[in-house]
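To the wet lab folks,

You asked to see what we're planning to order before we commit. Fair enough. Below is the target structure as tokens, and below that is the sequence we designed to fit it. If anything looks off to you, flag it before the synthesis order goes out.
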């Protein structure tokens, strides 16, 4: 076998291993599409939630008649995967505690599923391309490009640099941000884990409190600008 053949085989093996390592995120991604179709009443022709060859998964459905439905189905993984990841990571850092190898393994499992969900939270290029086309084909939908445009541009960038070369670092940054939010130092984390204690650090819930502060600050700013006068 030539060097080029070995290189292709190596890439395939790495791709397969990565797909297996992040399988929970793939399943959540496709489930988000499927459940949104169910809620929106859009018929689904076929659905595959995970596979080793070909696309990681897919959901084929009828074409929605409304832009809002098209956008909801396409962008569902972004909300579902990020939401699941936030809940799992917050729970693992602030609530879950235990002793022994099984407790540490359970904590690591929460992190695995959470990070995998983040890695596969970005909608596919096909989904975002469909929403972008539906947005730009009608002049009265152009203001919605402010919402769809950044995601579409991010997806195009992922196509240039490599999807996982973009999503993996972003997911790790999000994980580091969650850890920093709880003032958890790497040394304190390692001390607990090596001692067989998950959650022995001071991990009071922070994410909800921070989000509440941000929302209240935003409402105050809107009131000050006269844009949200009826909020008590």
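Sequence we intend to order:
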């Amino acid at each position: 076998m030539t060097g080029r053949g070995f290189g292709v085989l190596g890439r395939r093996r790495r791709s397969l291993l990565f797909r297996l390592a992040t399988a929970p995120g793939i399943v959540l991604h496709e489930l988000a599409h499927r459940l949104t179709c169910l809620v929106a009443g859009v018929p689904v022709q076929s659905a595959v939630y995970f596979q080793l060859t070909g696309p990681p998964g897919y959901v084929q459905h009828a074409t929605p008649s409304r832009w809002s439905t098209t956008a909801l189905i396409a962008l569902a993984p972004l909300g579902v995967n990020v939401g699941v990841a936030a809940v799992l990571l917050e729970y693992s850092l602030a609530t879950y505690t235990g002793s022994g190898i099984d407790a540490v393994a359970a904590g690591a499992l929460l992190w695995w599923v959470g990070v995998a969900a983040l890695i596969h939270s970005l909608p596919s290029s096909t989904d975002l391309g469909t929403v972008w086309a539906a947005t730009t084909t009608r002049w009265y939908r152009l203001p919605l490009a402010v919402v769809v445009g950044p995601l579409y541009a991010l997806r195009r960038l992922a196509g240039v640099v490599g999807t996982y070369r973009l999503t993996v670092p972003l997911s790790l940054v999000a994980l580091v941000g969650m850890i920093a939010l709880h003032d958890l130092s790497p040394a304190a984390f390692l001390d607990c884990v090596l001692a067989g204690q998950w959650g022995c650090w001071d991990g009071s819930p922070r994410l909800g409190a921070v989000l509440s502060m941000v929302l209240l600050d935003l409402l105050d700013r809107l009131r000050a600008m006269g844009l949200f006068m009826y909020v008590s």
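Structural context that might help your review: The chain has one domain: 4-208. The CA atoms of residues 94 and 205 lie 5 Å apart.

Thanks,
Computational group
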